[in-house]
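Researcher: We are triaging several targets before committing to wet-lab work. For this one, the compound of interest is pyridoxal-5'-phosphate. I'm pasting the protein sequence and the ligand SMILES. What I need is the predicted three-dimensional arrangement of the protein with the ligand bound, expressed as C-alpha cells, so it can go straight into our comparison scripts without reformatting.
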Amino acid sequence: MTTVEVTKKASRADKPTEPLIFEKQVEGQTGVDFPPLDVPKTEIPSGTVGNGINLPSFGQHDVMGHYTHLSDRNFSVDGNFYPLGSCTMKHNPRINEWAAALPGFSCLHPLQDDDTIQGALRLLYETRTMLEEIAGLHEVSLQPAAGAHGEFTALKVIKAYYADHGQSRRTVVLAADTAHGTNPASCTMCGASVQTVRTEQGQTDLEHLKEVIAHVGADNIAAFMITNPSTAGLFDVNIKEIADIIHEAGAMLYVDGANMNAMVGLIRPGDFGADAMHYNTHKTFSTPHGGGGPGSGPIAVTETLAPYLPVPQVMMADDGSFYLDRSREKTIGKVRSFIGQFGVLVRCWTYISACGPDGLKNVAETAVLNANYLAARLQDLYAMPYFNPSEGKFCAHEFVTVPRDLLDKGVTLIDIAKRMIDYGVHPPTMHWPVHDCFMVEPTETESKQALDHFVDVMRAIAEEISMDIETVQNAPLESDIARADEVGAARKPVIAFVDSE
Ligand SMILES: Cc1ncc(COP(=O)(O)O)c(C=O)c1O
C-alpha cells in the first residue's frame, strides 16, 4: 500500500464546538483603553445617540483567542496545498503585503487632490502600462473590481463602440461551452444574448463556430468570449484562425484572461488577435483572495476601443506628473467608486516588478510544468481525457481528470474530494467544465515536494477505494466538521445570531 503521511489532527470528537462570541462574552470587560479625554466633555444630543449597538464585552486576549481558534479551523493557501482549478490559489509573496501596508499607500484618502497623491498615481500609471505590455494591447483600465466586473465593463465598451458606429444590432455574444459562468452572466447584464459554441477535445469546434455565425447572422454578433487557455486546461491552438473568423464577421474577440498564469511573458493576447480582455490580477499577480474577494479585474483593449474605456483614467502629463482624466468624450462612464481596487493594484505592481520580465516568463513556464508533472504522475490511476503525451497532448497550467474507473468501484467524486481533506489537501474544482471531473491547478509556487505529496495522497486514495472503500465513502473523518449538506447550506442558510437581550 502506498505510504503517505496523513496530516494528523485531533479527531472531530476531541474538539469542542467553538461557542459564539456572544455566548462567551463577560459583562463589563473591554478590549480597548480609550486615551484620557483632552477636550471639554459634551453630551451627545439624545436624537443622535440611538439605542447603541449590541457588541460583545470581551478582553483583548480573549478576542484574539476566539478568532485564532476559528482561523485554526480554516483551510488556507498559506497552510496547505490548494489546487483549485481556474481559481489560481497560489502563494502570495509577503513583499506584496509589505508594499500595500506602507502608510504612503494605506493612509491615503480617495478624495485627495491629484497633486498630493503623485506616488500612488505613478504606481497606477506604471501598473497600467505594464499590463498593456503584458497583454500586447493598446490601453488598460484599472477600474473593474474583479474578473466578472472586467467582463461586464469590456462588453459595455464593445457595446458603446458598436452604438457609436451605427451597429447597435450586434447584441449576440458567442461563448464556448467550457466558459466560466460569469461569461454568460456578464452578457445578460449588458443586455446581450448568448450563443454557445461547442468544443471538441477542449478545443473550439471551428465548424460549429462557423455554423453558429451563419445561423445567428454575422451582423448580429458583437463578440466571441473565449478563455485561453480554456477551463479544460488547454491552449486553443486555433486561436489565430478563430480571431480571423470573428473579425471577418465584423465582431470582436474577447479573451477571458483568468488563466494568464499560463501565458504571462510567453504569449500576448493582442498578438493572437484579441480586441479586449480582462485580467484577474488577484490570481495571476497574487493577492490573497477567496470567499469572494478582494479582487481587481483590469481590462485591456485595442486602440479602436480605447476611447470608450471608463473614467477616471490615470494619465501622465508632458511634464512627467500624473493626473486622473475624468473627461473622455466617449467614455462609458464610471464603473466603480474612486480609482479602482487600489490595495490590490499595489500588490499587482509589486508582484510584477519583483518578478521582472524573466521572472514572469518563469511563472508561466513553471505553472505549466507543474501541471504536466502532476498529470503525468497520476494518469495511470486518474483518467485524463485531454492529456496524452504520447500523442503530443499536454496541458497548460491545469488539467482535468474524469476518474471513471475509480467511480465505477462505488464512490462518488465528492467522496474522493472529502477524503482529500483528511490528507490536508483542498479539493480541486469539481464537475466543471465536464461532469464528474476534477480540475487541478497546482500553480507555479508549489515545490516538487508538495507536488509529490499530492501525488502520494491521490494514489493512496485510489488504493483505499480498492481496499477500504468505506473509509472513502465516509470521509472526511478527521476534519472539524463532518460532511455538510452543501446544497442545503446554499439554498436554506441558517444564520444564527444570539441576541443578548
Ligand atoms: C475563467 C474565469 N473567468 C472569469 C472568472 C471571474 O473572475 P472573478 O472571480 O474575479 O470575478 C473566473 C473566476 O474564477 C474564472 O476562472
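Researcher: Any quick observations?
Model: The chain has 17 helices and 14 strands.
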